[in-house]
């Protein structure tokens, strides 16, 4: 069931695993790069926005980006970012929580104006919707139990190691293509994969770096595990970046979102929000 709440104002594998470049991020705190795609020399113009309401949509359950808070209302990084965008634009907004697989169709049918739900920009998604500028980039990470003796992860270093991964994901495809000597162990859900690592049923876990960072920092992990190796940012598997999706041709809203995102980054508010949700560095 959809919740609504008001807001205040087949891939060819690369030749080797691709790790993130430090130059792709802005450092806002010692040792913690903040992802960003904004160039201060390319300041977008303030839009002539004639909207009075933006109907945001987000995913139902993808913490820490989207989830239902204790009161049942939408919460998470994407929700707070939408709230900040509305404040910057001085426009009223609403938020609907929908299943991820319904968001693109909902935009096309005018059931919402913008989807802020960690939807990766790719050739396929660009055919269906238009995107704001990216505001972060998908990243994959390995995690291991503390004391496992793995300080880095290379294909030859994890030969024969059992690696938990969510079945049917880009992470499984990447693991099978690049780490051919490892032993993937697919699980139906990320929660089951994390539990397997915490219990020592597998040697490693490979998955989304952001949700893993959230887990590692939370009580559920109980300090069991740490990141090892990476990060990995191969765009052919994990996407070119994550933007806010709008209906094809809605340039007025897309440009307004670009302006608001730049302003939030320029003021340091994006970095503040990032640090709130990711005290454990996903990179």
Please write out the topology.
Elements: E1 3-7, E2 25-29, E3 32-35, E4 53-59, E5 67-68, E6 74-75, H1 77-89, E7 92-98, H2 103-108, E8 114-120, H3 123-126, E9 129-131, E10 140-145, E11 162-166, H4 170-178, E12 183-187, H5 190-198, E13 204-208, H6 209-216, E14 225-232, H7 235-238, E15 242-247, H8 251-266, H9 269-277
Parallel strand pairs: 4-7, 4-8, 11-12, 11-13
Antiparallel strand pairs: 1-7, 2-3, 5-6, 8-15, 9-15, 10-13, 10-14
Helix pairs in contact: 1-8, 1-9
Question: Can you give me a brief rundown of this structure?
Answer:
Helix content is 28%, strand content 27%. It has 283 residues and is α/β, with parallel strands linked by helices.
Describe this structure in words.
The chain has 283 residues and is α/β, with parallel strands linked by helices. Helix content is 28%, strand content 27%. The chain contains nine helices and 15 strands. The strands form four sheets. It has a six-stranded mixed sheet. Strands 12-11-13-10-14 form a five-stranded mixed sheet, with helices on both faces. α1 crosses α8 (251-266) and α1 runs antiparallel to α9 (269-277). The model is unreliable at 1-6 and 8-30 (pLDDT under 50).
